[in-house]
User: Fold this.
Amino acid sequence: MKKLLAAFTLALSLGTFAYAAEPVKAPVAAEAQAVAAPAQATATATAAPMAAKAAVAAAPAEKKELKANPMVTIPIFLLIIGATMCVVVWSAKQTKSAADFYTAGGGITGTQNGWAIAGDYMSAASFLGISGIISLYGYDGFMYSVGWLVAYITVLLIVAEPCRNAGKFTLGDILSFRTEPRSVRAVAAISTVAVSTFYLTAQMVGAGKLMQLLIGIPYKTAVIGVGILMVGYVVFGGMTATTWVQIIKAGLLMTGAALLSVLVGLKSGMNPFQFFNDIATSPNVIEHVQKVVLKDPVAVAGFDYGQRFLEPGLFLKNPLDQISLGMALVLGTAGMPHILMRFFTVPTAQAARKSVIVAMFIIGFFYILTTLLGFGAAIHVTPQAVMNVDKGGNMAAMMLAQKMGGDIHPFLGDLLLAFLCAVAFATILAVVSGLVLAASAAIAHDIYVNVIKGGHADQHEQVKAARITSFVVGACGIVIGIAAEKQNVAHLVALAFAVAASGNLPVVVLSLFWKKFNTAGVVAGLVTGTIVSIALVMVSPNMTYPKKVAADAQKVVVALEKKQAEGAILTPKEMKELDKAKVDYEKNKDGKSILGLDKPLFTLKNPGVVSIPLGFIVAIIAALAFPSRRAEEMFDELYVRQNTGIGIAKAVDH
Amino acid sequence: MAEKQYNWSAIAKNPKFMELHRKKTTFLVGWWVFSTVFYFLLPIGAAYAPGLFKIKILGRINFGYIFALSQFFVSWGIAMYYAHVANKDFDRLTRELVDELK
Assistant:
């Protein structure tokens, strides 16, 4: 068995190297014209808007691309893949029992776990997405990032220590303590798999698109490559490897963000007042806020458009939607199965406490640095250049890296960009590995070992089941990732948090703290929270409504045709837009959303404000309607255990 | 490793445990509610009191920016304070309870 394992590891790493190496061919073939191009490309990208502004302010710059230099990027990628592979080989040797596989034998220290939580949590979306929103809309992006940290207060005060004291491997372990285990475990597993799948799909699609954009790997290859690495980490290394991949990633991400922030800070003389002055007086920011964000064709006299960038309301327009998202974050993070699972890897409640606090400092610093990067990109890259590469601003941090490094030396620009690409890649790997592990634990430990085998399985069989399940879950992740390439996945992250907040969190809290809670409550709460969240998102503005697409296309057609009728000659870019809009209109004018709707039934993007209270209420009503004497009698035991850790299974010393 | 049999309902009625439980509940619920209310003041304030958020406090740095930044420090503060109280009070009470049960 051991030899077989080693052979598999070898084959797998070779396979991944092959995948990682494959894209080298394409860029190398085109190297003749490309080798010096990347540095120039962005130099023109950043210079273009200024030049354009000086000459003819209205001339739209051609769409620019950001390309990393493969000669620098590929070696850094290989270095990271190689380092993580060493970790996998090392952890595979240590993974013998089910506890080793799911919780690294409980042998992770508080500080290590804190870094791993941060690595598990900070996704590429928050790094690239939030800095992008800040570079385009200023203050609102910063405000948006706050909830992601505040969420950890709930984790720290309410769930971390009780879960460490009362749990073993999964959410199902905590929920089935004083309830009818089979049905509760089955439902808990379904909810865990649902949350993980939503989150995983969003990450996989993001990974594919990002790698495609940054280093020109085809979408499918990128998804398969990420998928193979993720399966390799989890199947062979279990929790130990996943933990170390997350720690490495968190270290890389913080290094990258800190380095760039220092470079941004130096440009403003390390003076915060100067920095804010630079933002508010940047002519590019002023023009962007006036023309693109507020759409004032002529500047309103006396209005400080630069200062407006530092005030709320440019991006987040619906307060109820924001409150709804805030609720989903504050309660959902504490119900995320891959985060909960991290608390089983430490030996004591004290270590669990310490790990949340370490994680909070890392995550908090990270979001503050992200703000600096976002504002830095607004000053030095300019919102116009950021939008030229990606309308949503997702490339802002990457462009900033190339600009900041390139200002010192062109090679340094390529190096910094390559480093940040690698960081984004490591970030994706760390998050998806945690998700695959959480989903497989729910299937293998809850469904297979406890529901199907009734808890009778020896260690060898449990580990085997866990490995096979991880392999299958990972393979499904790859298939879903490829299938979802053209789908709208932006809502999936919000959906994952909403399900965790409305389904998982209410039943975890009620199980731990309410004596009368029981089987009926857990099942009803989980099912309601999950289904209501999914249903509300399916009829929300997150989905694509063809009639709306058609209406928007129609607007473009009307505007451009009016321009033409007035005698203006359209640029080639505008002609293309016109043709595309006409096609879009024809294609979509009679379409309906997936559920056959013309427009959203539920007007919020985030269902939390409705689904979270509903999850709590249904769980409470069901528990009261079907009282269980046994569940009440066992409450004392659970309550003493979760508060004190008495009777906790001692972690095995390594 | 045979697990020791505990009389759970007796422990639950132990005065030490009752004290631990009471102190913990007050602390945890109180600070959780405080942090949540403080957090939701941010989106609510930004939406309904934009005038307040625009007031410049230090140079071009306005109230909104300082308030959003304060969220980070308040969260860290609560976390540190909780760690302090938990290490000092809750862990001590738990240890005393466990020693008593030996």
The CA atoms of residues 231 and 474 of chain A lie 5 Å apart.
